[in-house]
Amino acid sequence: MANSLVKTKKKFSVAIQEDKYKALINNTLGNPKKAERFIAAISSAVAINPALQECDANSIITAALLGETLNLSPSPQLGQYYLVPYDTKNGKIAQFQLGYKGYIQLAIRSGYYETVSYTHLRAHETELHL
Predict the structure, then answer these.
(1) 1 pLDDT more than 60
(2) Is the pLDDT of residue 102 over 90?
(3) Is the sign of the CA dihedral 52, 53, 58, 61 positive or negative?
(4) Strands 120-123, 91-98: parallel, antiparallel or unpaired by DSSP?
(5) CA distances (Å), 54 to each of 7, 15, 71, 86, 90, in order?
(6) Interatomic CA distance for residues 65 and 92, integer angstroms
(7) What is the 3-state composition of the chain as percent helix, strand, coil, each rounded to the nearest 5?
(8) 124 falls in which pLDDT band (50, 70, 90)?
């Protein structure tokens, strides 16, 4: 009986297909084509990251919508922003993390900069990109 009371968490790939999430995304983005592209992009980002697959679907969508409002891509290959999983006492959640290429995009779009340059730094065998 106790096992029947345990709330089962849906996989993100299943949850994102639910009408409530689709309606939220469509209403937020206001464009069905943009909503389809958004769902495909975040589904792809989640599919390649096993830790994200364990995160709450609401937190993934919330974090990704923040990136979408900045007109950035969640693709890890582009490095504009990342959906980063964090453990909390209530389970795993995803949070928005702006990547350095996202900073560059936002700086250029601001109109205050014509170009933005960066250099590679090496510290303790770790390569940092600034």
Answers:
(1) no
(2) yes
(3) positive
(4) unpaired
(5) 14, 12, 26, 10, 12
(6) 18
(7) 50, 20, 35
(8) low
Q: How far apart are the first and last CA of the chain?
A: 55
Cα dihedral angle (38, 55, 69, 16), rounded to 10 degrees? 30
- Token output for 91: 């389970």
What integer is the mean pLDDT of 90-104?
93
Helix (H) or strand (E) holding 15: helix 12-15
User: What's the rounded mean pLDDT across residues 104-124?
Assistant: 81
Least trusted range by pLDDT, from 23-27, 29-33, 89-93, 116-120: 116-120
User: Measured between alpha carbons, how far is 108 from 38 in angstroms, rounded to an integer?
Assistant: 23
Q: CA 50 from chain center: how many Å?
A: 14
CA distance 111 to 40: 30
- What integer best gives the mean pLDDT of the chain? 85
